[in-house]
Fold this protein.
Amino acid sequence: MIELAKGISVPEGRIRYHADNVMVRVPLDDAGRTAVREAIEQARSLRQSPCRPPVTDNERLCTRCSLAPVCLPEEARLAHNREWQPIRLFPEDDERQIIHVLEPGTAVGRCGEQIKISRRHQPTEILPGRQIGQIVLHSFSQISTQALYFCTEQAIGIHFVSGGGRYVGSFDARGGSIQRRIRQYAALSNSEKCLELARKLVICRGQGQRKFLMRGGRGKEASEELKKAINQMKIVLAQVPKAKGLENLLGLEGNLAALYFGALPYLIGNDVSPLLHFCGRNRRPPKDRFNALLSFGYALLLKDVMNAILSVGLEPALGFYHQPRSQASPLALDLMEIFRVPLVDMVVMGSINRGQWQPQTDFEVRGEQVWLSDAGRRRIVDLYESRKQETWKHPVTGYSLTYRRLLELEVRLLEKEWMGEGGLFGQLIVR
């Protein structure tokens, strides 16, 4: 630019590193100018291409690269070489708060670089925006357009849950990501690829359910019914890799779910109140306290899966196993299957066996319908969010992450399945 502006020739450029007292001289010759022009053209081509370039052979270049959490170079090398021992380049665990606004009539607004939460008959709460990761609006709470705009700028997820504990939706503020979604559309339009991913999903969930039942039977003499269910699940799981289509796979998954929920009552302790016992899965509305807890927990999980999908930039409306429906997004329902057992089922069962619930005050019974009370919703939110902060060593990558961060990692590993770097998705099975 100086040469063009001044009409002179610049033979050399100099870069001085004051901390090291080093001067680097860069010759500005014709070869250098040609190399720069070629690099610019290559960068333009890469920007226009829907294909991501391959991971570099020099792993040192990835250590400080800001795009390492996106392309996951260490995981890509592991996909091609199972002897590779990856180091964790995935971001540190997100320590920002997740704010649940449970009280109807609460107003969420913006005050400068802060979020203002105004509850009825309570002092206004003001929180720095940089300390917030998500805002979850339950029931009929409100949020201003100024706060929505600010949350979009700060990458703060906004999610809505009904007063009855049903996930309603998320504020989608994705920018760009179109190339990523083009690859998703191309991959998930392939029925064979969808069936392959669906098999992995059913095996992951079924194995997790079976391992949970096996874990529940340890340390005490398991009932014959529990042992029988565990053995039958093993037989059904062996048929999953042979499934010829999604319809066949749905039938096998239904059998696994029936066996699992049929055996779940045998994990409940003898000293637990009969009001908290489980007699089979039901929902919309839940007809007992155990199902009320499961349904609310699954709504919170669906919210977090959606948050991860939107953060990565995939299209939640296009899944590979669940079919399009009027409300919940298929891809979110797909990815939920991986985390149902560790993030909801285990939390609910553990809290019931530890006597953490008050059957009379934590629930509201309305005829045949059972809902969580205000106190009950606060309790399940606290238990669920605490569980997400626990760590789990990934069985394939070998490094540990919190469940909260694992949600995003699993979405990115799913994307790798159609990037030629598969084999890492759907491996999170309870031990």
Notes: The longest helix spans residues 191-216.
